[in-house]
Amino acid sequence: MRWSAQALLDAGARRLVVVIPVGDEDLAAEALEGLNGWSTAPGGATRALSVQAGLNALADHPADEPVLIHDAARPFVTKGHVEALLAALAGADGAIPALPVADTLKRDLEDGGLVTVSREHLWRAQTPQAFRRGQLLSAYAAWPKDAGEPTDDAGVMERAGGRVALAPGDPLLMKLTYPEDFTMAEALAPLATAPAARVTCVGQGFDAHRFGPGDAVWLCGVKIEHDKTLIGHSDADAGLHALTDALLGTIGEGDIGDHFPPTDPKWRGVDSAVFLSHAVDLVRAKGGQIVNVDVTLICERPRIKAHRAAMRARLATLLDLPEVRVSVKATTTERMGFTGREEGLAAQAIVAVSLPA
Ligand code: MG
């Protein structure tokens, strides 16, 4: 039940009604602990009555809103199954996942013999099955009293004259019915519930800018009063430039100069947050999630320490990361080299990004 509920909620279900025998509500609460957006409804004496009880528990939802009916005994339902069903429902009165019949079918005869039955046009219906709530309730109301018990909801919709569309079925949507089914399900569980494969990619960036006459510098998106400024085409924020290059490095998308040519007057004096945000967008467009970033500023002056907290906060905002995943460090080069002589300032950055494999 939990696996089914989790998958349906992950797929975007706004509300989940668990139809369960009266007295068993605690079992549902135990199984669904920690999940939000669900409630229970008392089951009826038959499958058909239970389904209608679930539909009636959603009476405050629009009648034309899609509703999915699912057997909790099919625990391997995924967001992908739900998306395929909703797409199929768009042009029909109902949609079901179904598999073609692969085995040869036999009918036993009264004289003890067998006859082979054509499997052409035969499908194995699975769940979840998708409908519009009001339309399915009307179909149930129209079900003839003498027609016996419907075995699925699509059958009720068909009988009422509705058109039910087929969506791709999946062997993993099997219904766990017999004890041996559970043995098979346990063996399949790691496969069916494995998160999509991802890979962690790292990127690194380096940048340096020359000091010139001025009264402030921009570093990691923070303005710092200083007796010089940094010279560059944009705001010369070497911290953000190194970080932008590091992000581009995780997805092999060239460097900052490819995306924002220094020859283009459009980028003169621009806030380097624009560059960083562009690189973040490119990473996200590839399904990337930034894991952490670490920036090192290399200079004698200005002293960075007093500004580190503000820099972390600014980077956390720009990257939409918790501050614990954002590091800003500073070092000097012991008065050696161009940073030691205070001719300029340098920055290094390294980033880890989780990407679809
Ligand atoms: Mg630069």
Protein described:
This protein has helices at residues 2-10, 25-31, 47-56, 79-89, 133-142, 153-159, 179-193, 238-250, 256-259, 273-285, 308-319, 337-340, and strands at 16-20, 38-42, 66-69, 94-100, 105-108, 114-117, 123-125, 129-132, 164-168, 198-213, 216-219, 222-225, 228-231, 289-298, 326-331, 344-356. It is elongated and about 105 Å long. It is built from 12 helices and 16 strands. The mean pLDDT is 94. The chain binds magnesium ion. Magnesium ion (MG) binds at residues 207, 209, 232, 238, 241.
Would you report the number of β strands? Answer: 16
Oligomer: single chain
The first-to-last residue Cα distance is 30 Å
* Average residue pLDDT: 94
Radius of gyration: 31 Å
Helix content: 25-40%
Largest sheet: 5 strands, mixed
CATH architect. name of the largest domain: Alpha-Beta Complex
**Anisotropy-based shape:** elongated
SS summary, helix count: 12
| Portion in strands | 25-35%
CATH level 1 class label of the largest domain: Alpha Beta
> SSE string, helix = H, strand = E?
HEHEHEHEEEEEHHEHEEEEHHHEHEHE
Uncertain stretches:
none
Could you name the CATH homologous superfamily of the largest domain?
Spore Coat Polysaccharide Biosynthesis Protein SpsA, Chain A
